[in-house]
Design goal:
Strand 1 and strand 2 form a beta hairpin. The longest helix has 16 residues. The relative contact order is 0.16. The chain is an alpha/beta fold. The protein starts with 10 loop residues before the first strand and ends with a helix.
Length: 260
Amino acid sequence: MLSEFHGPKNLYAGDDGIWYAAEQEAVSYPSEGNDQCFEIEDKSFWFQHRNACIVELVKKFPPRENGPIFDVGGGNGFVAKGLMDAGWDVVLVEPGPAGARNAKKRGLQHVVCATTQAAGFRPGSMPAIGVFDVVEHIKDDLAFLRHLHALLEPGGMLYLTVPAYDFLWSEADISAGHYRRYSLRTLEGRLQAAGFQVAFDTYFFRVLPLTVFLFRSLPFRFGLRSAAAEPENAKRTHGTNEGIMVRTMRQMLAPEANSI
């Protein structure tokens, strides 16, 4: 598939079926982050709901000729697998070796372990790009968005998600390697400055901001470390036990995907 779309010039095929760049670039993401997420993604209401919203969004605004979608910074391939199961061809582009290996375990066929820059993807070579909770990890987000714009074919689609609201900043953002959070207004401004036309945007997880503010952001502002930021509490925070609170949360969030 890579060669079909004017494939990147700096990659070689590894014995594990993953494409690697000759030179790797540093990224603002904890080295252990992908393995920690891999343990909880399949049972997390948060990851599952985000996937449901992303799939509905891509259905409403499909890529030209139905793909492929290049999932840039796609971690363990959880979103890529969801898009693939929904019928689209997907190429995962993930600079972290652990994430790339986990994506292969998930059944992703096309996995590139590199940044788009290190891989040497050619300008105008991608029909669609997904960056799902990635842009906040980039120090110069405008330069990165301009780079993505250059990679897209004319009329290509960009799909993205980012963490919302500056007032929700907490220890969890610092631990995750975030540089910022966004409002729709600031995100629209960045996208337009990078050359994009915004076709659709929305908030989701609308029932969570108050809880996040009270149990993460407010303690952080008072100099207290939130328990939710600790790796050992990740399973509880993501509701992998399917308790009554998680079931209630799922019911409350379900209409968001339908509304798209």
